[in-house]
Amino acid sequence: MLGFPVRWRDDQGGYAALEIGETPLTLVRSEKVIPSSHMPFNFYVSDIVEAHQHLAGHKVEAGPIQDDGTVKWFEFEDPDGNKLGVCHFKE
Fold first, then answer.
1. Residue 27 half-sphere exposure, CB side, CA atoms within 13 Å?
2. Fewest CB within 10 angstroms: 17, 33, 65, 84, which?
3. Measured between alpha carbons, how far is 6 from 51 in angstroms, rounded to an integer?
4. What is the pTM of this model?
5. Rounded to an integer, what is the distance from CA 86 to the centroid of its chain?
6. Which residues, including other chains, have CB under 8 Å from residue 69's CB and lie 6 or more apart?
7. Pick from 2, 3, 26: which is nearest to 14 by CA?
8. Residue 12 gets which letter from DSSP?
């Protein structure tokens, strides 16, 4: 859905690492996940509109792009209903 290449995975142990930039994102399978009402982290992108369209093209329901004058962002949910975010700001 997000299009990140898998750097490595261990199906038996329940681990996977995704190439998302300088530092891989390591995911750990868990039987019990406590849902959060806020985004635990954001994916930084260089083009927020392109990222929003990419998710829409994969039938992911994403909220509208917000802009506070410094940061642009939007929220979406993963297939398990966890809130995630995408953001962009000038570096």
1. 15
2. 33
3. 19
4. 0.70
5. 6
6. none
7. 26
8. T
List the structure tokens of 5. Answer: 């290449």
**Local structure of 43: helix, strand or coil:** strand
Closest CA to 60 of 36, 41, 86, 34: 86
**What DSSP string runs through 41-71?**
-EEE-S-HHHHHHHHHHTT--BPPPEE-SSE
Beta bridge partners of 30: none
**Span 22-31, average pLDDT:** 80
- Nearest-angstrom CA–CA distance, 52 and 46: 12
Cα gap 45→87, rounded to integer Å: 6
Dihedral sign from CA coordinates of 88, 19, 54, 50: positive
C-alpha of 90 from chain center? 19
